[in-house]
Amino acid sequence: MSLAECRSAGALEVKFVPDEDVLRHIADDAGVKVQKGKSQLIVNTKRFVKKLEAISDDEAQEILEEKNYVAVLGLCGEGTWGTGTYHRCYFGRFFLSQRLESESEYSASCSEEEEVEEAQKEVSTVLSHQKTPAKTKAVSTPPSRKTLTKKKDNMNNLVEEYFEAHSSSKVLTSDRTLQKLRRKRLNQQTLHDLLQKSPLAYAAEIKELNQQYESLFSKWMLQLHLGFNIVLYGLGSKHDLLEKFRTSMLQDSVHLVVNGYFPSITVKSVLNSITEEVLDHIGTFRSPLDQLEFIMKRFKEDSSLELYVLIHNLDSQMLRGERSQQILAQLSSLPSIYLIASIDHINAPLMWDQAKQSLYNWLWYETTTFSPYVEETSYENSLLVQQSGSLALSSLTHVLHSLTPNARGIFRLLAQYQLENKDNASYPGLSFQDFYQQCREAFLVNSDLTLRAQLTEFRDHKLIRTKRGADGVEYLLIPVDDSTLTDFLEKEDEDV
Amino acid sequence: MFIYLYVFIYKKIFLLQLSPLFSSQQRMFCLDNLICACVYFLADYFREGNSDLEDSELRFATCQSLQKQVKSETEQIEEELNEQLFDNLVSFLRRSHSAFQEKTTEWTWRTKSREIPTAALVLGVNVTDHDFTFRSLSEVLQNNVTPYIALLEAKDCPGIKNLMQKLLGQLMNCCIDVGSSEEEDYEQVSHTRVRCSMTSLINWYESATKRTDSETPGKKRTSSRHWQSPPVVVIFKDMESFTTKVLQDFVVISSQHIGEFPLVLIFGIATSPMIIHSLLPHSVSSLLCIELFQSLSCKDHLSTIIDKVLLTTQFPLKLSEKVLQVLINIFLYHDFSVQNFIKGFQLCIVEHFHSNPLSILCCQLEEAKRRVNSLSHNQCENVRRLPSFRRYVESQVSEKQIALLTADSSLKEAVRKLLEDLNVYHENYFPILRCLHVFTSSLPKYPLGKQIRELHCACLENRVWETEEYESSLQLARMLNKSDLVTMLQKCVEILVSSPGREFDEIVERLKEFLTQFQKLEETYQERDESVSPQKELQKKTNLYNLQKTLLELKESRRSKKLTKFEMLRFEVVDYIDSLVRRYLVPADHKTLHEIVYFNTASVLREHLNAAPRIALHTALNNPYSYLKSEALKSDGGSISNKAPDICIAYKLHLECGRLINLVDWLEAFSTVVTAAEGPTADVASSDQVDDVIHARFIRAVSELELLGFIKPSKQKTDHVARLTWGGC
C-alpha cells in the first residue's frame, strides 16, 4: 500500500511542475535559448515546490489518506475516454497553472504583496476544503464563487497569453547544428555496442519492480479467462515482461505474438497468421473483413479452440489506424481469444472510442518497468542515428533485378539526372515530359504510355515519388539520399 | 516443439539478413505448434495468485456461481425493460404488414407513392449497450414475426454494393435456418455468385415464400410462428455512421420495388430523430413512412439495475460506498453504458473473492453457517484479524474475550451469530432505505438526492442522521401537507408489507395507526370548522379599538403557537421515521464482519477500469523515486536529480524548451547533467570515449521520448525536434 500511496503523492506533484514550466514559456520566454545548465529556472521550480509543500505539509497526511483527491486530479489530467474529459483536463490545467501564476508573480515582484496573500489564501482554501471529507470529491470544481469569478478574469488573460505565444510561427532557438559539432553520427551498430557497454542504471530496483508485476501473472490468466482483456501501460519497455508471461504461462497453449513496433506489420498479416497457422486454412480472402468473419465463425463453432494473442505496442504506427483497431477489437471480443497488449504512447487511449473500448473490454494494469525500449526503438529511424542506407540500397537492387533491362535503363536515367542536380537545393525533380524525351532518345520507350506503365511499377515499389509542381507539371523524384544513389549506380556499373 | 513463423513483407526481408542486431529478435510470430491442451484450469490460476491456498476452490466455485447468477439476473431485467418497446415495434410491423397482405386501397396508394414503412428507434448515446438491444430485438422478431431479418452495420457497408451483398447474404442464410435440409441443395448456390441486385432479392423472396407456402400442409409450425408472407426487416444498427449516399441510394432503389415484396426498415438512432432529416434530403425522406420509437433512457435503466441487483438481499456480495461511487461516476461521466456498469460489478465479484480469503463466507446465510463449521484454524485467525471483529471483541467482557481469541469453537459460534445479525441488518436496511427514499424524493430541492442510489451512498458513508442534509430534509418533511404525507405513508406500508423482514409487523401496525389517525383528523376537521375562527370575527363590523385588540390577540396566539392536531401528528410521524432511520440505517462498516460481504477496495477498481496512463507516465518521468526505491533518487524535490535515469533527465530538459528544441543544445545540456553526476572521477584522457557513451545514451533517451509521443522530428529547422505536449504545438 505504501508504494501506491507514494505514487499518488507523486502524482500530485507531477501536476504542478510541468505546468509551472509551461507557464513560464507562455508567460515570457517562448523562445529564449535553451538554458544550458539547470540554472535559475530550476532553482525557481525548486523553491516553488518547496513553498507548496510547506503549505500542504500539515495536510500531507490527509492527502495521502484521501486518495480520492488524488484520483480526482488523476481523472482531470486524463483524457482517456472522451472529449468531455479532455475538456475538463484542460480546464484543470488552467485552473492549476493559474494559481501558479500568482505564485510566480510573487517571485517576480514582491511589491504586489496583497495579491500574493490572496493567492496564498486561495491555495489554503483549496486545501482546507480537502479537509472536510464530504467535499473531497468536489475539489476539481472551483471552491467558491468569489474565487471563481476572480479566476475567470485571470483565466481569460491566461488563455489570451497562450494563444499569443502560439500565434507567431517564429520560434527562437539557437542555430547550432549537429554537423558543426564535429562529431560523427553514430550508426546503429556502434550505438548498440556503446549502449551495451554502459551499465543499466538501477538494475536492482528495476528487477524488484518486475518481480512485483510477475506475481500478477496468474491473476491475469484468471481475468483473461473471465472475458476481460488486459492492457499494460507505464514507462519502460514491457516487452520482456510480456515475454516472461508467455514463457511462464502460455507454454502449453496456442498463442500468437505480434510485435506491433515492427515497421511493416499490418492487421492483415496478423489475420493471415491466425487463419493459416491456427485454423489451418488454405486460401485467400477478399478483404480483412471477410477474413475476420471467417475467423469469428470458426471460433464460435469450435468452442475447444483457444488462442492467446500478445501484442507488443498496440499503439504502434502501423496498428493505430481506425480500421486496424476496429478489426483487432472485434477479434478480441471473441470469448475464446485472449488478448494481452501493451501501450506506450501518451495519447494511445485516444485510439479507442466507446464502441471499441467495450469490444476490447480492457482491464488496465500499470506496469512501469523503466527498462529501455531496446527493440521498440531499434526500428524507429532515429533522428541522430546515421542512416546506413544498406536497407534502401539492397531493396533497390533487388527490385531492379527483377525488371526488364529497359526498365532498369529508365531508372538509371532518372538516377543519373538526380545526381547531376544534387547540388541544386531547389531541384524539383525531373519533369515527365523531359524524362519522356530522354527515354525516347535512349531508345528505352516508344510511347509515353509504356513509360507511364513503367513508372506505375516503380511507384508501386516505392522507388519513385511524383509530385505536382506549381505549374501543374508532374515531377519525378527518387526518395533515396544521394550517397545511397551513388552507391547504387556504382554497383550497377560493376554488374554491367 | 516450436515453429517460428516469419511474416514480413517483401522488402523487409533484408532487414533480417543484413543487420545482425535484430537477428535474434526476428520472431514476428511465434506459434507453439498446436498442442491444444488446457493443462491449467481456471481454478488453478485463481489459487496460484493467493498467498493462502485454503478453500480457494470453494471460493472460486462460489464466485463463479454468483457471477452467473448476476449475469442471468441482469439479462432478465434488461429483457423486461425492453419488452414494451419490442411489443410496440411488433405491433407496428403488424400494422404496416397487414396493409400489404390485404392489398387494400391504402396499400396500393402507398405503393403508388412508394413509401417504405420505417421505424426510427431512438436508443440514446450509450452505443455500447445497443448491441444487446439489437440482438434481443432480432431474436424477438425471429420468433414471432419473420425469419427474414438483416442487421446492417455502417462499417460493413462503405458502398451500396457491399450493402446489398451483406443484405442478401444475411437473408439467404437465415432462410436456410428455416428451410429443411432437403432444400439445402437449392440454397447452396452461394450468394456471392448471385448478382446482388434488387431483382435477385425479389426473386429470392418470391421463391422463398412460395416454398414455405407449399410446405404449409406438412409443416404447420413454421407458418404458425411467422406471419403469412413475412416481411423483410432490414435493421440499420448505427444510422448516423452510414454514408448518406449509401442510405439514399438504398432507400430510393428499394422504394421502386416496395410493391413487390414487403420491406420494413428499422433505423437505430443514437442522437435525435432529427438526424434522419439531416442525413436524407427531402426527396428521399419523403419515400419513408417513419414512426418514432423511444427506448428507455439509460439512466432509468441503471436505476432499475441498481434497484434489482444492488439493493436487495438476493446477492450476498455488497458494494461499499466508495466502490459504488466509482462505478456510478464512470457511468455518469464517461459512457452512460449499463453494460460497463455490470462489467464493473462483475470485476468487483472476482476481485473480492480473489483477494479476500474470508469471502468463502460470502454466500447465502444457510450455506455460510455450514461453512463456518468447517473453517480451519488459519481462517479463524483471519477472522480475528478483521478490524471490525476486533472492535467487537473489545466490547465483550473479559472471559468472553479470551474465549473468542483462543478457542476456535466459541469463535465459530460467535461468527455464526454475527453473520445472522448481518443478514437481519440487510433485511431491514433495504426496505427502510426505500421508505426513507419515498420521503426524501418528494422534498423540494432534494437535499438527500433524487435517486435512491444517492441516498444509499449517503447512508453507507456515515451515520446519515448526523449530516446536515438529513437535518434539512427532516425540517422540510415537517412541512409536508397532509395528502402527500398520507400517500407516502401508504407507499411505505406497501414496501414494508412486500418485504421479507421479520420485524416489520410492528412498524406496519404503527404506520397504519398513523393513517387512521389522519383519517380521523379529517372527520374532526368539520367539527372544528364550525367553531368560529378569529378570522371570521374580523370580518364583523368593529371599531378601530376592537380591531386593534383582536389583531394583537391574534398575533399573541400565533406566537405561542398552539399546535393543531394535524401538526402534532405530523411531528409524530416524522419523529417516528427518524427513529426508524436511526435504528436500521446504520452504516455497514459499523457492523461486525462487514468485511466479508462488502467489497471496498475502490482503488483497485479505479485502477483497472478507469486508468490514468498519462499520469503514470508523468509520475515515472518526473519523480522516478516513486517507482525506483533508491536512496540516490530520494532527495529529488522537483529539480533534476542528475542521477535519475537518462530518459527522466532528457524529459526534464525538454520541458524547459518551447515548441522547437535544438538537438545540439539539448545534447549539451544532457551531457552536462550526466557528467556532473558521474563527478570528477571521469578521466580526462578517456573523456572522448565517455562522450561517445553519453551521446549514445542521449540518442536512446530521445528516441524513447519520440516513441512515447513527446517529440517528433521537425523539418522547420535543421536538427530540431518539435515538442508535442504541454504548450508545444
TrEMBL record, chain A:
One GO cellular component term noted in the UniProt record for this chain: nuclear origin of replication recognition complex
Localization per record: Nucleus
Highest taxon, organism lineage: Eukaryota
GO biological process: one example: DNA replication
InterPro entries membership: ORC2 (IPR007220), RecA-like_ORC2 (IPR056772), WHD_ORC2 (IPR056773)
Predominant subcellular localization, coarse grouping: nucleus
GO molecular function: DNA replication origin binding
Pfam family, one: WHD_ORC2
Origin recognition complex subunit 2 RecA-like domain sequence ranges: 205-366
Keywords: DNA replication, Nucleus
Span of domain Origin recognition complex subunit 2 winged-helix: 423-483
The keyword Nucleus appears for this protein: yes
Biased composition (Polar residues): 125-146
Tagged with keyword Transport: no
Region listing for Disordered, in residue ranges: 125-149
Role this protein plays: Component of the origin recognition complex (ORC) that binds origins of replication. DNA-binding is ATP-dependent. ORC is required to assemble the pre-replication complex necessary to initiate DNA replication.
Subunit note: Component of the origin recognition complex (ORC).
Family statement drawn from the similarity comment of this UniProt entry: Belongs to the ORC2 family.
Name this protein carries in UniProt: Origin recognition complex subunit 2
From TrEMBL, chain B:
Entries under Pfam families matching the protein: ORC3_ins, ORC3_N, WHD_ORC
Tagged with keyword Protein biosynthesis: no
GO molecular function: DNA replication origin binding
Principal localisation: nucleus
TM segment ranges: none
InterPro entries, per the entry: ORC3, ORC3_ins, ORC3_N, ORC_WH_C
Subunit: Component of ORC, a complex composed of at least 6 subunits: ORC1, ORC2, ORC3, ORC4, ORC5 and ORC6. ORC is regulated in a cell-cycle dependent manner. It is sequentially assembled at the exit from anaphase of mitosis and disassembled as cells enter S phase.
Membership in a protein family: Belongs to the ORC3 family.
Occurrences of domain Origin recognition complex subunit 3 winged helix C-terminal (ranges): 614-726
Keyword DNA-binding assigned: yes
Gene transcribed to yield this protein: ORC3
Keywords: DNA replication, DNA-binding, Nucleus, Phosphoprotein
Biological process, per Gene Ontology: DNA replication initiation
Name of the protein described by the UniProt record: Origin recognition complex subunit 3
Subcellular location: Nucleus
Annotated GO CC locations: DNA replication preinitiation complex; nuclear origin of replication recognition complex; nuclear pre-replicative complex
Span of domain Origin recognition complex subunit 3 N-terminal: 44-361
Protein's job: Component of the origin recognition complex (ORC) that binds origins of replication. DNA-binding is ATP-dependent. The specific DNA sequences that define origins of replication have not been identified yet. ORC is required to assemble the pre-replication complex necessary to initiate DNA replication. Binds histone H3 and H4 trimethylation marks H3K9me3, H3K27me3 and H4K20me3.
The Origin recognition complex subunit 3 insertion domain, residue ranges: 372-602
